[in-house]
Write a structure and sequence with these properties.
This protein is mainly alpha-helical and 297 residues long. It has 7 helices and 8 strands, in the order H-H-H-E-E-E-E-E-E-H-E-E-H-H-H. The chain has a domain of 204 residues: f41 fragment of flagellin, N-terminal domain (Up-down Bundle), CATH 1.20.1330.10.
C-alpha cells in the first residue's frame, strides 16, 4: 500500500485532534472538579452515583421530617411533663381536702384551685407549634379543647383520634404526640371530669367522693406519666435514627465522591503529558507541511 504525503498529513491531523480532545477532557475535570458527569464518561460509575445521590436526597428529606418531628415531639413532651406537675398538685390538694381539719372556707378555696388546675390542663393541651396544635391529632388547625358545658368535665374536644406522625422512611412512621382522646381517656374516666367532679365534691363537702377522688387522682397522674414516657421513648428513637441517617449520608457522599470527583494529581499529570505530546506532534506537523519534492532532489 502506497503511503502518500496526504495520508501522513491526515493521520497526524487526526492524532492532534484526539490529543486535544483528551487534553480538554482533563482540563474540564480540573475546572469542574468532576471526572464523571455523564454516562459516556463511565457508565457504571455514573449509574451508581445517580442511585446514591437519589438515596442521599431521600435521606435528607427523612432527616428534615425527623428534625421537624423532634421539635414538635419535644414541645408535646414538655407539655405532658407540665401536666404531670399539675396533676401532682391536684393529688396533693385532694389529699388535703380529705383531711378532717379542712373547714368550709378552706374547702372552697381548694375547689377553686382544682378548677384552676383543670384550666391549666386545658391550656397545656392546646399548645401549638407554628400554629399547629399538637394534641388534636391530625386536625392541627383547630383549637382542640374548649370549655363547653356539654363536654365531659365541661371540656369539649374538636380534634380526631389519628396521632400526629413523622414519616421516617418509606415504610416507617412514628407518633410525635398523643391525641386529645388518648390524653383525656384514663382508666378512672375522663381526665377533665375527674378534676371537675373532685372540685364539686370538695365544694359540697362530700367526704366519700373526695376520698374516691384520691384514687382517681393517682390514676390520672399515672396515665399522663405513661403518655410522657411513651413519647419520650419515641423521641429517643428518632434521635438515634437521625444519627444513623447522618452517618449513612456521609458514607454515601464519600462513595459518590470516589466515583465522580476529579483525581487532581492524575488530571494534572495527564494534562502535562498530553501538552508535551501535543507540542511534539505540532513540531512534526510543521516539518511535514514544509516538505516538498525539491527536498528529495
Amino acid at each position: 500500500m502506497r503511503v502518500t504525503q496526504q495520508t501522513i498529513f491526515n493521520n497526524l491531523t487526526r492524532y492532534l485532534n484526539e490529543n486535544r480532545e483528551t487534553m480538554a477532557k482533563y482540563q474540564r475535570q480540573v475546572t469542574t472538579g468532576k471526572s464523571v458527569t455523564k454516562a459516556s464518561d463511565d457508565n457504571i460509575a455514573f449509574t451508581t452515583a445517580r442511585h446514591l445521590e437519589n438515596k442521599i436526597r431521600q435521606n435528607k428529606q427523612y432527616q428534615s421530617n425527623i428534625s421537624s418531628g423532634l421539635t414538635k415531639a419535644r414541645f408535646a413532651a414538655d407539655a405532658l411533663e407540665n401536666m404531670v406537675d399539675v396533676l401532682i398538685d391536684f393529688k396533693s390538694t385532694v389529699v388535703n381536702a380529705a383531711s378532717d381539719s379542712a373547714n368550709t372556707d378552706a374547702r372552697e378555696m381548694m375547689a377553686d384551685k382544682v378548677e384552676g388546675l383543670k384550666s391549666k390542663l386545658v391550656d397545656l393541651a392546646n399548645i401549638d407549634y407554628n400554629d399547629n396544635y399538637l394534641f388534636g391529632g391530625t386536625q392541627t388547625d383547630i383549637t382542640p379543647f374548649s370549655f363547653d358545658s356539654g363536654g365531659a368535665g365541661g371540656v369539649a374536644y374538636s380534634g380526631n383520634d389519628k396521632a400526629l406522625q413523622a414519616k421516617l422512611s418509606e415504610i416507617s412512621n412514628m407518633d410525635i404526640s398523643v391525641t386529645g382522646e388518648d390524653l383525656r381517656n384514663t382508666e378512672a374516666g375522663d381526665l377533665f371530669k375527674i378534676l371537675q367532679d373532685t372540685a364539686d365534691a370538695i365544694r359540697s363537702d362530700d367526704s366519700s367522693a373526695i376520698n374516691t377522688s384520691i384514687d382517681k387522682a393517682d390514676e390520672a397522674l399515672s396515665h399522663v406519666i405513661d403518655l410522657a414516657a411513651k413519647l419520650g421513648n419515641n423521641i429517643n428513637r428518632m434521635d438515634f435514627l437521625d444519627e444513623q441517617l447522618k452517618g449513612h449520608a456521609i458514607d454515601m457522599e464519600g462513595e459518590v465522591s470516589q466515583l465522580t470527583d476529579t483525581d487532581y494529581i492524575e488530571a494534572f499529570s495527564a494534562i502535562q503529558k498530553y501538552e508535551t505530546t501535543y507540542a511534539a506532534a505540532l513540531s512534526v506537523h510543521a516539518k511535514i507541511i514544509q516538505t516538498s519534492l525539491l527536498d528529495f532532489l
